[in-house]
């Protein structure tokens, strides 16, 4: 099947306390978003990437590509006011059927093995959503009371969230509401079962200044590992 990656990058950098949108912040020599795109090209040079950005960020992206000599092919699409609308717009750029991995632009540490697993599983189950087990104890709160919960029953959801194109496109035809927080919830609301697979704790979403520090350390560690493998 034809494979697509729909990368959504509409953040504004509010929680990271930066005037520069977080997807454009430099991380180990490249903007965060470029690391994300390169991860998908490491998985496959034939993948088609659709990059969804706010219209006001198109010029910034083109300027950064020239500055860093980054010329990997992507199809640009204008985002919407919400993530739901941005993904829906991105899906319009896909002609025909296939599989699409929908991914946060600020998850630059996704590994090609995770991407590959998502496509293989989605080809069988129509959906494949990366998730990891909780490490900490959790409690549910109800006003003034709390209750311990069995953490083994819960998962932290990541991206990529990969789907058969026709299925997720039809799911996004439904009416948007605030409870549809990711692509899996959109597909589930449309009546589809969601298949989870094991993600990675390294596949962090850059949201706060601390996340940038952690991401830089992980990227440096990977680069050092690649050097050792080649030596």
Automatic annotation (TrEMBL):
<dbReference type="InterPro" id="IPR001228">
    <property type="entry name" value="IspD"/>
</dbReference>
<feature type="site" description="Positions MEP for the nucleophilic attack">
    <location>
        <position position="205"/>
    </location>
</feature>
<keyword id="KW-0548">Nucleotidyltransferase</keyword>
<protein>
    <recommendedName>
        <fullName>2-C-methyl-D-erythritol 4-phosphate cytidylyltransferase</fullName>
        <ecNumber>2.7.7.60</ecNumber>
    </recommendedName>
</protein>
<dbReference type="Pfam" id="PF01128">
    <property type="entry name" value="IspD"/>
</dbReference>
<dbReference type="InterPro" id="IPR034683">
    <property type="entry name" value="IspD/TarI"/>
</dbReference>
<dbReference type="GO" id="GO:0050518">
    <property type="term" value="F:2-C-methyl-D-erythritol 4-phosphate cytidylyltransferase activity"/>
</dbReference>
<comment type="similarity">
    <text>Belongs to the IspD/TarI cytidylyltransferase family. IspD subfamily.</text>
</comment>
<comment type="pathway">
    <text>Isoprenoid biosynthesis; isopentenyl diphosphate biosynthesis via DXP pathway; isopentenyl diphosphate from 1-deoxy-D-xylulose 5-phosphate: step 2/6.</text>
</comment>
<dbReference type="InterPro" id="IPR029044">
    <property type="entry name" value="Nucleotide-diphossugar_trans"/>
</dbReference>
<feature type="site" description="Transition state stabilizer">
    <location>
        <position position="15"/>
    </location>
</feature>
<feature type="site" description="Positions MEP for the nucleophilic attack">
    <location>
        <position position="151"/>
    </location>
</feature>
<keyword id="KW-0808">Transferase</keyword>
<comment type="function">
    <text>Catalyzes the formation of 4-diphosphocytidyl-2-C-methyl-D-erythritol from CTP and 2-C-methyl-D-erythritol 4-phosphate (MEP).</text>
</comment>
<dbReference type="InterPro" id="IPR050088">
    <property type="entry name" value="IspD/TarI_cytidylyltransf_bact"/>
</dbReference>
<keyword id="KW-0414">Isoprene biosynthesis</keyword>
<feature type="site" description="Transition state stabilizer">
    <location>
        <position position="22"/>
    </location>
</feature>
């Amino acid at each position: 099947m034809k494979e697509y990656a729909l990368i959504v990058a509409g953040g504004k950098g509010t929680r990271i306390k930066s005037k520069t949108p977080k997807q454009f912040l430099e991380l180990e020599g490249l903007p965060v978003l470029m690391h994300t795109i390169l991860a998908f090209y490491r998985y496959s040079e034939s993948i088609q990437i659709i990059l969804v950005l706010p219209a006001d960020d198109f010029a910034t992206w083109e300027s950064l590509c020239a500055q860093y000599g980054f010329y990997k092919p992507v199809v640009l699409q204008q985002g919407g006011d919400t993530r739901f609308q941005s993904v829906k717009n991105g899906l319009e750029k896909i002609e025909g059927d296939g599989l699409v991995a929908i991914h946060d632009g600020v998850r630059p540490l996704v590994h090609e093995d995770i991407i590959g697993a998502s496509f293989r599983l989605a080809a069988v189950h129509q959906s494949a959503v990366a998730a990891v087990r909780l490490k900490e104890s959790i409690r549910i709160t109800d006003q003034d009371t709390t209750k311990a919960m069995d953490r083994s029953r819960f998962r932290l959801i990541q991206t990529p969230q990969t789907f058969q194109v026709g299925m997720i496109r039809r799911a996004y035809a439904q009416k948007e509401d605030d409870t549809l927080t990711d692509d899996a919830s959109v597909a589930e609301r449309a009546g589809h079962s969601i298949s989870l697979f094991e993600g990675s704790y390294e596949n962090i979403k850059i949201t706060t200044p601390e996340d940038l520090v952690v991401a830089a350390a992980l990227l440096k560690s990977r680069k050092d590992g690649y050097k050792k493998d080649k030596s």
